């Protein structure tokens, strides 16, 4: 089964499941729910310079075993850290865009709060991407 080097040589290759809950999710033969429904989410942690954190939140209608499998897979393959590193590559660009957006809008609306500007920026620029 083709997969990236990290999956073939990393943690996944060193362990095997003894029960359903500890099975890694297989990209070709597993249930569609893992690929068609969202279960990995992200939060932007505001600060200097800011960060993105990733977490698992499975749909409520999933079986408990599937929820545990998704969480186990997420932890086993260190997905939060992998996604964080990838997102970090683009985060500085987004922060620069946000700061430019705030600067331009403040010229035209001196009464707008930072929270309002941030919300408008997310709505206008980030939601189409997310």
Describe the structure.
With 130 residues, the protein is mainly alpha-helical. It has one domain. The chain has five helices and two strands; from the N terminus they run ααββααα. It has helices at residues 5-9, 33-36, 64-76, 79-108, 114-126; strands at residues 40-45, 51-56. The chain is elongated, with a radius of gyration of 19 Å. The two termini are 30 Å apart. The model has no long low-confidence stretch (mean pLDDT 81).
Distance between the termini: 30 Å
* Fraction of residues in helix: 40-55%
What is the average per-residue confidence, as pLDDT, rounded to a whole number?
Answer: 81
Which spans of ≥5 residues are poorly predicted at pLDDT below 50? none
Along the chain, the helix and strand elements come as: HHEEHHH
Radius of gyration equals: 19 Å
Proportion of strand residues:
5-15%
Kindly report the spatial arrangement of strands forming the biggest sheet: 1-2
Helix/strand/pairing category: mainly alpha
Instruction: Give the helix tally.
Output: 5
The overall strand count is 2
Report the biggest beta sheet as strand number plus sense, adding barrel if it closes.
Answer: 2 strands, antiparallel
Morphology call:
elongated
Overall number of structural domains? 1
